[in-house]
């Protein structure tokens, strides 16, 4: 770290929020994003909702064979 940074008046945890929810950025390959975007548009739902629905279905299938 560079010596010109002065943290002498810094306050530990000033912006920490214990109940904050972290939204993960998910990067889809272009072909997958294109396909899902088109499917979501056909169904009239947002892309995020489409992806969540598909992932929940996949989780249910995985859990059902355990």
Keywords:
about 50% helix; single chain; about 0% strand; about 70 residues; mainly alpha; 2 helices; elongated
Report the β-strand fraction as a percent range.
under 5%
Number of helices: 2
CA-based shape: elongated
Radius of gyration: 21 Å
**Structure summary, number of beta strands:** 0
Structural class: mainly alpha
Q: Which sequence of SSEs, written as H and E, runs from N to C?
A: HH
User: What is the average per-residue confidence, as pLDDT, rounded to a whole number?
Assistant: 94
Instruction: Flag low-confidence runs.
Output: none
Major sheet, described briefly?
none
Helix content: 40-55%
**What is the rounded distance between the termini?**
49 Å
Secondary structure blueprint with pairings:
Layout: H1 30-43, H2 47-64
Helix pairs in contact: 1-2
Detailed description of the structure:
With 66 residues, this protein is mainly alpha-helical. The chain has a domain at 30-64. 48% of the residues lie in helices and 0% in strands. It has two helices and no strands. The protein has helices at 30-43, 47-64. The longest helix is centred in the C-terminal third of the chain and has 18 residues, at 47-64. It starts with 29 loop residues before the first helix and ends with a helix. The mean pLDDT is 94.
């Amino acid at each position: 770290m560079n010596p010109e940074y002065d943290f002498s008046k810094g306050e530990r945890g000033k912006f920490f929020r214990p109940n904050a929810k972290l939204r993960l950025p998910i990067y889809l390959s272009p072909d997958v994003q294109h396909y899902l975007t088109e499917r979501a548009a056909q169904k009239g739902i947002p892309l995020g909702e489409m992806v969540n629905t598909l992932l929940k279905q996949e989780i249910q299938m995985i859990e059902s064979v355990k």
